[in-house]
Amino acid sequence: MAQVPNLDNALINLKSLRDQSQKELITILKNIRGKKCLVIDPKLGGSLSLIVQSSLLKEHGAELRHLNAEPIQTDCTKVVYLVRAQLDLMKFICSHIHNDISKGIQREYFVYFVPRRAVVCEKILEEEKIHHLLTIGEYPLYLIPLDEDVLSFELDVAYKEHLVDGDTTSLWHIAKAIHKLEFSFGLIPNVRAKGKASVRVADILNRMQSEEPVNTSEMGVPEINTIILLDREVDMITPMCSQLTYEGLLDEFLGISNGAVELDSSIMGVQQEGKKIKVPLNSSDKLFKEIRDQNFEVVVQVLRQKATSMKQDYTEMQTTNQTVSELKDFVKKLNSLPEMTRHINLGQHLTTFTSKPSFLARLDMEQTLVEAESYDICFEYIEEMIHKQEPLINVLRLLILFSITNSGLPKKNFDYLRRELLHSYGFEHIATLNNLEKSGLLKKQETKSNWITIKRALRLVVEDTDTANPNDISYVFSGYAPLSIRLVQHAIRSGWRPIEEILKLLPGPHSDIKRGGFSSSPSLDSLNGSLHNSDKVVDGRRSLVLVVFIGGVTSAEISALRFLSAQEGMAYDIIVATTKIVNGSTLTETFVEKLG
């Protein structure tokens, strides 16, 4: 099964976006005649695999290499670097070229920045006296479709850059990507934002529209009716909790990267000693599409039922005479066997993690933290984790959850845990703790926590959640409804206004802007969850909401949005765009920095 996801059933024409990105890359290669060595920044490599098959790059005369400190080994006289604008990558390029010069090797060098060039990077190339040897260009890849309803800006450290370093470059990239979307699908008339970064992106988007307007008269009715921008900072509780959907758990334990997991072939029933295999996970896999958003408890039952039913069919085949059409049906079922085997193997592997007492104890503790009613129990649990030297990331995840739900820790406890962490894990982690403090994820308590008020007002803890037949988004965390998605739910149903007071208790400002000449286009304010005829696009499709997460979104939150979109009486389809798909560990890791 191809790594490049099938986008035929996407709600808007994402395939044309992907084709455009593919075409731009191929044009770059065509313009450099003959054989060339294409040296790709490793972080970009995964993203490109979702846009173009490597065989197509090779057809256009490209030899593929990953960029690292080692000199390039190639016979090609043309070397093309495809890189993000990052200083450490410039140093690699400089060392490669200096190495060639010292050996008397003559080559032509091209550097294409993704998505745009940066003065600070070019300055390094000038200081190293190689700028004049390079042809410099841009490959404007701002947005990558990960699946039929998910887009990624592939900005994995945007959240940390903005909160800790005060670097807002990524916000310009996000606005630029959305503005590019508008040139394809029309000016988005309603823009709602919550959080510092989101409000800033909404402002930049308006500025871009005044400087380089999307022609509203030519485009007709915009395909996307509303955009909801949400800072990760507004809800850092959700990503710190363990996801309990099938896709969420696969990411928590196996790490989904660019729509695939990589694991030992033995887990997938292939006997090849020590060999790793990549298992693609996207909606091209029909069974995965059916079970990805379900709570894992339910997935285990679904797979068991499917296996039992196939076994019965097989027995019947052997014991009775079948008609041709019955045989045809059976063969059709057999076609789904590889998918079923794949997910039974993955499910079985996941169970080895989810059945561990340590995982169940952790879930218990997360629930206690979210309910925010037993401070001492939580404090002692985290203290014990530190003394047992459990993985630092696991400790930090719970500590962030603890700090946010309590609006910080009393000074005495804060200083004590900080000291214990440094003693246990090494003083080089003082930089990590400083990053967490700077971003407000770990802090001393100065005011009384308002988490209990928020939790009650938005009904975030739901008793007796039915995971098998869910009637609320809380099924994705078995009883906790993600705060971020509750906010989206309100924004879609009735706008920010009814929850204004709650919004003020959450980090950052909020805004609500109407744009362009589309006053006739339905505003979300007029919606009460019921389907208005005016909300249907001309050809009978539902209106579309683009939900943008700045700082990352978890698979479980995407599942909750899909659940919302599928509800009866819901007048909108939802597409998600994010700086990166994250889980609590990958998000926490962006703040980890060792001194020296």
UniProtKB/TrEMBL annotation:
Gene3D superfamilies: 3.40.50.1910, 3.40.50.2060, Syntaxin Binding Protein 1, Chain A, domain 2. InterPro entries: Sec-1-like_dom1, Sec-1-like_dom3a, Sec1-like, Sec1-like_dom2, Sec1-like_sf. Belongs to the STXBP/unc-18/SEC1 family. This is ATVPS33 vacuolar protein sorting 33. It comes from Solanum stoloniferum.
